[in-house]
Amino acid sequence: MGFPVLRSEILFHGSHLFHRRCVKDLYTIDQVLEQIQSAFSEVSGVDPSRPSVVIRNPNKRVDHNGMLVNDEAVFECNGREPHAELYSVIPVGDGLKRKHKRR
User: In terms of pTM, does the model score above 0.90?
Assistant: First the structure.
């Protein structure tokens, strides 16, 4: 896609993720950590159809509600250059409606 390879740490501040997943979507912190771990799997790859930098685990896992989900990690790569920042994780398939922007 023309982006340089990330060769350094990924920053994680967590405020957006906490307010979005724990407060609004009612996930526990342990569940969010499970989503992050899954999204950062060795088999995860970049989803080029998304307007942001997103990696997606192609392997489904069973979440706490018994739903099969694919976990995605969304990054902010400009504001903290040269480091990427983990902005959010999304458990796609959890039954919650989300709008995904397309390029």
Answer: no
